[in-house]
Backbone:
């Protein structure tokens, strides 16, 4: 979304970016106050990819309707995890993707409401496929794959969410008593598949290097190639060092209880090992507040 | 991130982890980096007051695997060197030895800064303080 907004700014549009509350949720009053008389569109992520919090789409949509602005929702992370019904939700445009819900890579969809009608511009021109909105021969196998993935997700969602919630709680119970650990994002208003924690005084990338058997990420997958701390965690008001110390753990359709227990043990072991190596941990133990030290940024 | 075997070896078996007493006259301490940037290195050297040779070294590092490996390697390299030799260590030698990718070169720069800071601290303690 951010890159799309930046491109719109380049074209001369004005974009207002809103910070979230420390729990990751959007403050509806702040949202309402940010809408200007010339605002034409609002875009919100249904479920955040890094911290898993679920925004109140119905309430945000109601505000948009009242103000007469188009409401776009990025639901890439929500499908198969959050129950929603577009026939009752005040959403005008919704982006969907297949691969986040166990479907094939390379296909997604844009829901465009007919009533009240939303007019959109084509991104690609040519063959006139899909009413001229997206030219190009339709990939039948991809479409079937996405549809089937969504069908299975819908069928299994109820039971899966219960099972995954139990694994989430098991993991949380195993890790929450580690000293100086911080949970990122609202604890209830979130998808159970995601658990994001910061292990203070341990740098996330080095932690990932130690827990070799686990596929996790620090910050977001999109920024871990760079050295910048996660902007999502910074938006929660987390300090740079806590953002650097974050670990995003996700639970999937095939995750087992044994794997959760293994993950908890491995993470605890490596956090302890890296804290033994950490000069910041020593300072914390000596009662030195590292925020009072004049560090030389590099 | 693909790490070289040497980085992995230093990460898994870091050499000379620990601390010396900062107040010890024979110890020089260098602490560089910043938590907000994701790297902090503390490097300490123990110097023979007669010969001026570094007899021992210790480190503690908060940072990625390459930062840990760079500081671990430096503690090995500075042992047996004079202060001048240690201060002359170049980050490019560290980066080359560990085959650091371009995005991790700053780790070797930090390690070079750390050893320079430790040498400087020792010299200041002994009345020969000068910025290197």
Residues:
């Amino acid at each position: 979304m951010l890159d799309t907004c930046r491109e719109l700014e380049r074209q001369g549009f004005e974009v207002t970016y809103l910070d979230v509350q420390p729990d990751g949720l959007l403050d509806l009053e702040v949202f309402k106050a940010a809408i200007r008389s010339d605002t034409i569109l609002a875009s919100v992520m249904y479920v955040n990819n890094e911290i898993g919090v679920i925004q109140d789409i119905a309430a945000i949509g109601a505000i948009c309707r009242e103000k007469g602005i188009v409401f776009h929702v990025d639901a890439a992370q929500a499908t198969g995890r959050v129950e929603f019904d577009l026939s009752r939700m005040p959403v005008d445009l919704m982006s969907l993707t297949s691969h986040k819900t166990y479907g094939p890579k390379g296909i997604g969809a844009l829901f465009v409401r007919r009533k009240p009608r939303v007019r959109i511009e084509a991104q690609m021109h040519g063959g006139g496929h899909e009413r001229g909105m997206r030219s190009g021969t339709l990939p039948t196998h991809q479409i079937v794959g996405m549809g089937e993935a969504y069908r299975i997700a819908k069928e299994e969602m109820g039971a899966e969410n219960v099972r995954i919630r139990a694994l989430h709680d098991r993991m949380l119970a195993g890790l929450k008593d580690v000293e100086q650990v911080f949970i990122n994002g609202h604890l209830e208003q979130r998808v159970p598949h995601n658990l994001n924690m910061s292990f203070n005084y341990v740098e996330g990338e080095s932690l990932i290097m130690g827990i070799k058997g686990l596929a996790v990420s620090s910050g977001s997958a999109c920024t871990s190639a760079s050295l910048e701390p996660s902007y999502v965690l910074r938006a929660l008001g987390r300090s740079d060092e806590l953002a650097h110390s974050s670990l995003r753990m996700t639970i999937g359709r095939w995750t087992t209880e044994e794997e959760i227990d293994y993950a908890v043990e491995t993470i605890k072991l490596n956090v302890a090992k890296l804290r033994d190596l950490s000069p910041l941990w020593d300072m914390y133990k000596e009662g030195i507040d590292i925020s009072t030290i004049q560090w030389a940024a590099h | 991130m693909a790490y070289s075997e040497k980085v992995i070896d230093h990460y898994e078996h870091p050499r000379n982890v620990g601390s010396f007493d900062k107040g010890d006259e024979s110890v020089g301490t260098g602490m560089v980096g910043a938590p907000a940037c994701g790297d902090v290195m503390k490097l300490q050297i123990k110097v023979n007051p007669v010969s001026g040779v570094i007899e021992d070294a210790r480190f503690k590092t908060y940072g990625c695997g390459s930062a840990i490996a760079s500081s671990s390697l430096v503690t090995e390299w500075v042992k047996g060197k004079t202060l001048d030799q240690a201060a002359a260590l170049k980050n490019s030698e560290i980066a080359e030895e560990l085959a650091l990718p371009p995005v991790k070169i700053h780790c070797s720069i930090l390690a070079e800064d750390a050893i320079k800071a430790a040498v400087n601290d020792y010299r200041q303690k002994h009345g020969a303080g000068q910025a290197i």
Summary: The helical segments of chain B are 5-12, 65-78, 83-87, 91-98, 105-125. Residues 105-125 of chain B form the longest helix (21 residues). The two ends of chain B are 34 Å apart (CA to CA).
